Amino acid sequence: MTVRQEVAHRPAPTATAPAAVELDGVTKAFGAVQAVREVTLRIEPGQVYGVLGPNGAGKTTLLRILLGLVRTDSGTVNVLGRAPGTPETLRDIGALIESPAFVPHLSGRTNLRVLARARGVADAEVARVLRVVDMQDAADRRVNGYSLGMRQRLGVAAAMLGEPSLLILDEPTNGLDPDGMASMRSLIRDLGGRVTVLLSSHLLGEVQEVCDRVVVLDKGAVVAEDSVSALLGAAGSRTVAVWAHPMDVAGDLLRSNGAWTDAVRAGGGDDPHWRLELDPGGVPELVRALVEGGVEVHEIRRERRSLEQVFFALTDNSSGSTGSGT
Amino acid sequence: MRHAMAAEALLLRKRLAPFVVGGGWVVMVVGFGFGVPYIVYATLDPVKQAADRAELLATLLPAAAHTTAAGSYPLFGGAIMLILGVLITGSEYRWGTWPARLSQGPGRAGVVLAKVLVGTAAVVLIATAALAASLVASIVVASVEGRSLTWPAASAIATALGATVFISVAWMSVGAALAVIFRGVGAALGAGLLWTLGLENALSGLAGVVPALEPVRAILLGPASGSLVAALGVPSLSEGGAVGVAAYMSAPAACAVLSGYIVAGVALATVLIRRRDIT
């Protein structure tokens, strides 16, 4: 794939550029259903920004608001320094919203040509984006014969027409095979820094891999918004795993100390260890207590939680549910 | 607007629907305007029904080809053009392509207007093709019957073409609006055809016996179409002419009603597309 060469000529945004996307107190209801509640966000130019949330969290509504397809009930929206949905704004945005829809009996190339003409870009641009998503060979086949993954790639190609400065991608790897997913992630990573990418995905590992910053929505409201590393750090910094010998003696020592009564045995028979919640400053005291109790400490490792664990913790906590994915 | 027109023109050119609808209409005009009447003509008794035969043959010869073709529009042509209008806007709902179409740059009103304008261009081509096919059919009839080729005046042909395009655009605009109102093809077609072939005919017929309904008939699309075609000199059904042709109103009044439907249809579709959330 020639992704890097194809996208590398767009200059990086300057540090003084205005926010790519700004939302302030945005609210939207569909009848009695409150889809988006008081959402305030700022996305800097060149960021790869993840939008996470369970089904019905308001992710797609939020993306539609940015395109002007859905109007807000209250709050202000600024996209690329302009109002959403105006012709000037839309010409700078490429979007793939939900499952890509095309005229089924027309070829992929013709579908892209229709969209290219609406954008006012030349047919040569169609050939370029087809190369980017590696769809040249299937471009002249009818879309109704495409697999889900091929439609998805065509949708991403459509979003890239005219080299927009803001790409909105809703589940871009949906239906792709592992190779296709890897290529798509690589493409998004390459675009980052030059193009602002707003990525909604259910694949949390994917978001963790490619996004600089993430917002987590639940029931239409923002429950967390931070850099990926900060979210992972904040959520996973207290869990510590302890490998020691003998295990039983270590367990007795830990449980007899009032500060570590939450210690639980983990790892099964192959990799037995103790897990407990511990502040960063507590490690020396833990080691000292174990060694003084006659236990050999083989390893202490602070566990780094995945974005998936963070996501479940955030969304379950916010909804008041007792269930947890972790 | 220019970009929206270019996109819409490419889309309509690549679609099968306009060719099926247009081609089907040309076949219907030739079949029901010339084929069936000629069969009837051939079965009439040359001696006992000589007057009827002569009258019928006169409508099948080149001198009357343009009015015979126009006579097909008030009822069946209108329904066909309504289907075309429904397909032009309604298919976007069926395919789920409105979000993509409306996030490329052209404004929503521009996209709707582009659809209607490109649809109008298609209607001009369809009406021209139907007229050309009618002329060819009339030449065949004249040749078979050994009659001389007497052509209608160019201005008469142009007037008939203009009237049929005008009628077609009005029906197409209504179809386009119905598809937006119902957010799809199926319900819009059902409602449109029920109105066209059922309610309009019922109201129009009842107005003949219930004078209170005459003002209602005066604003209906079918009677306005029939009146405009009647103004071209096409005989009404009672005079041996086509179904739906009758001088219910003057030509200017008919033009005003048709214009009203065009403006109302386009405005309604535009306002709804602009106001609604695209989900």
Automatic annotation (TrEMBL), chain A:
Pfam families: ABC_tran. GO terms for molecular function: ATP binding. InterPro entries: AAA+_ATPase, ABC_transporter-like_ATP-bd, ABC_transporter-like_CS, P-loop_NTPase. SUPFAM superfamilies: P-loop containing nucleoside triphosphate hydrolases (SSF52540). The keyword Nucleotidyltransferase does not apply. The keyword ATP-binding applies. PROSITE patterns: ABC_TRANSPORTER_1, ABC_TRANSPORTER_2. Residues 21-244 form the ABC transporter domain. Keywords: ATP-binding, Nucleotide-binding, Transport. Belongs to the ABC transporter superfamily. This is ATP-binding cassette domain-containing protein. It comes from Actinomadura alba. The lineage of its organism: Bacteria, Bacillati, Actinomycetota, Actinomycetes, Streptosporangiales.
UniProtKB/TrEMBL annotation, chain B:
The chain crosses the membrane at residues 20-44, 56-89, 109-142, 149-171, 177-197, 249-273. The keyword Membrane applies. Keywords: Membrane, Transmembrane, Transmembrane helix. It comes from the Bacteria. Signal peptide: none annotated. This is ABC transporter permease subunit. It comes from Actinomadura alba.
